[in-house]
Amino acid sequence: MSSPAAQRVVVISDKDPLGLHIRPAEQFVRLAMKFPCEIEVVRESVRADGKSIMHMLTLGAEPGAQLRLEARGEEAEQALDALARFIENGFVLDQTEGQPPADAGGG
Amino acid sequence: MKFVDFVNRNAIRTNVEADTKEDVIRAMASSLLEAGKIAQDQYDGIVEAILKREELGSTGIGRGVAVPHTKHPSVHELIGAVAVSDEGVDFDSLDGEKVHLLFLLISPPDRPGDHLRALENISRQLRDDTFCRFLKQSKEPADVWQLLEEADNNQFGS
């Protein structure tokens, strides 16, 4: 908790006109749970636990909405890479998702 | 969006005895049929569409809550039913918990925003432990309705 949060700002893609509804929220949470770090997602004044579907739905994130992803702890950067990619690709998971990157500096 | 904007007062069921996903979804769709919110000849198609959606992944959102749903061209506004189960229903939720509180949503295909707003409202209110517990403990539909109205009037913190 005392370590500073790694952060990433992402925008919800318009590939899915529903925005961040239950299915992508569930996929996001499943992906987040692969990482040991704490993950939070912030939209304006709303802060959600990135490992809770119910929390993620409170963001009401429609296409175009801007979210700030925050991660604290082990594998924080890897988690943010994977989660940001999932959001920006229009809720499509990579084949390699959740595996440690071969080159940590890549991307 | 508020609960009273989409939950139909006559489509609230407590002490629901259905203990499978399919049975509870049928019971909830029946409550909307009895409330006159969906047409008899659309019932089977609506139930089938909701079950198909469940096959893609559970609509259990954690804390014993599920939001089974579908889009359907026969409805012209977002409509919702509520069910409370004492025993709980196995819903394949990610957190493994049985579901005790369900919101069933049917939305017109051309109004994607309404569905998201309803999900936002349901989840925001249910983040409040007291509200969530009170709803699950409700014994009468009138109690559920009163709680929903109180939540709409910001009587629970969140």
Automatic annotation (TrEMBL), chain A:
Any one Gene Ontology MF annotation carried by this entry is: transferase activity
Which superkingdom, per the lineage?
Bacteria
Localization terms from the record: Cytoplasm
Q: Where is the HPr domain?
A: 5-94
Q: What is its main location?
A: cytoplasm
Keyword annotations of the record: Cytoplasm, Phosphotransferase system, Transferase
Which InterPro entries does the UniProt entry name for this protein?
Answer: HPr, HPr-like, HPr-like_sf, PTS_HPr_Ser_P_site
- Which Gene Ontology CC terms are recorded? cytoplasm
The record's Pfam families line, in alphabetical order, gives: PTS-HPr (PF00381)
* Broad EC category: transferase
GO BP terms: namely: phosphoenolpyruvate-dependent sugar phosphotransferase system
Q: So what EC number does this one have?
A: 2.7.11.-
NCBIfam families named among the record's database cross-references:
PTS_HPr_family
Similarity comment = Belongs to the HPr family.
Q: What is this protein called?
A: Phosphocarrier protein HPr
Q: Which organism is it from?
A: Lacipirellula limnantheis
The gene designation is ptsH
UniProtKB/TrEMBL annotation, chain B:
Per the database record, which ranges form the PTS EIIA type-2 domain?
5-151
The question of whether Transport is a record keyword is answered with: yes
Cellular component, GO annotation: cytoplasm; membrane
Task: Give start-end of the signal peptide.
Answer: none
Instruction: Name the UniProt key words of this record, in alphabetical order.
Output: Phosphoprotein, Phosphotransferase system, Sugar transport, Transferase, Transport
* Chief localization: cytoplasm
Q: What PROSITE patterns does this protein map onto?
A: PTS_EIIA_TYPE_2
Matching entries from InterPro entries are given as:
PTrfase/Anion_transptr (IPR016152), PTS_EIIA_type-2_dom (IPR002178), PTS_IIA_fruc (IPR004715), PTS_SugarTrans_NitroReg (IPR051541)
A GO BP term here is: phosphoenolpyruvate-dependent sugar phosphotransferase system
| Pfam families with a match to the protein in the record | PTS_EIIA_2
Q: Name one GO molecular function term.
A: protein-N(PI)-phosphohistidine-sugar phosphotransferase activity
Looking up Gene3D superfamilies in the UniProt record yields: Mannitol-specific EII, Chain A
Q: Which domain of life is it from?
A: Bacteria
Can you say where in the cell this protein is located?
Cytoplasm
PANTHER family named in the record: PTS SYSTEM FRUCTOSE-LIKE EIIA COMPONENT, PTS SYSTEM FRUCTOSE-LIKE EIIA COMPONENT-RELATED
Q: What is this protein called?
A: PTS system fructose-specific EIIABC component
Source organism per UniProt = Lacipirellula limnantheis
